[in-house]
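User: Study the chain.
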Amino acid sequence: MDVTIVGAGLSGLTLALALAKAGLPSLLVDKISPHAAVAKKNDIRTTAISLSSRRLFTVLGVWQKIADNAYPIHDILVSEAGSESILHYDSRTIGQEPMGHIINNNALKKSLLSQLEKYSDFVSFIDNRSVIALEIRKEQALLTLDDGKVIVSKLVIAADGRDSRIRTLADIQHTTLDYHQSAIVDTIQHSKRHHNLAHERFLPGGPLALLPLQENHSAMVWSERTAVAKRIANLDDEFFSTALKERFGDSRGILKSIGPRAVYRLAITVAQSGISKRVALIGDSFHCLHPIAGQGFNISVRDIAVLAELIVDAGRLGLDIGSTPVLKKYQRQRRFDIMTMGAATDMLTRLFSNDFITLKTIRCFGLFAMNNIKPLKNITMLHAMGMLGILPKLLNGKTI
């Protein structure tokens, strides 16, 4: 096998599809079956898909399957409790495309699996198995599964999440910053239309975001100190809706929690390297960021676009796709984006998750300045859309 991908979540499935479409076979290994996980519909989270990520999914034939269930974001409004300063992004000021779309994780995963069925000659699955050992030889990586089976490949790709087993086995160190925050995730019905506006409101305990879904519905991501988040999440729907209204305000009218509701721990985890011998990290195994900037999965998509292009090009040239020179190119091309986004989300989380008067003044000035300095505002908007810099082919809507 040329490539073994450990982890069949959104990142692993997307990479497998990108490779398959380019004619490069891969094996997906996961401790649970992705098909069973989709059938259970147990992932209620939503994902923000930037413009460049949408282009990748269009090339892969996935977007056509999910477009009717992907809800556009034309505007982003950022506000802070107790302040009149706001920051308003309008995508129509720089073009006709939405800044992004909101889609349910389960729907995206289902579409990826459906599209992968068309490439069954290039993708195979081993479900309900865990990796217990990794051995690197000169031109091979050997994975041992918990049933004793040994998988030999040229390249192992870790897509197994924040607590990556492959990252540990490859002896890649990582840094974790725990903000002692958790995110409450819910679906909210409101009496006023959202007009495809995503609203993020900063509170002392963390940001509260309502992201547009169908009609008068929004996906909610409410970050709070963990103990507080658990108490709020356990309120009945009426008291929860009241607490939400007190913090969010009247812009969407009457708010009603319609669930299901869940709580997820928040922290930043960044690997000190994205590669080791015969191993590459993508997605949350490489970088798991705070959702304050709404860019988590889009950064993972950028990993996928870069790595897929590099190894496909290497394979077509007859080069060793798991060689150190190929992997070092991946590391170089991804390092700056990941480090800057990690630093930015850390700074924003620390800056906005407290009520110190000095920082509050800085925040108000920052929002005012960003909203009124058009060139800076446009640059940050383009970055949110994934359209800054030299982009790999898939993010430009081109095949590899």
User: Anything to note?
Assistant: Residues 324-352 form the longest helix (29 residues). The chain has twelve helices and 21 strands. Residues 307 and 330 are 6 Å apart (CA to CA). The mean pLDDT is 91.
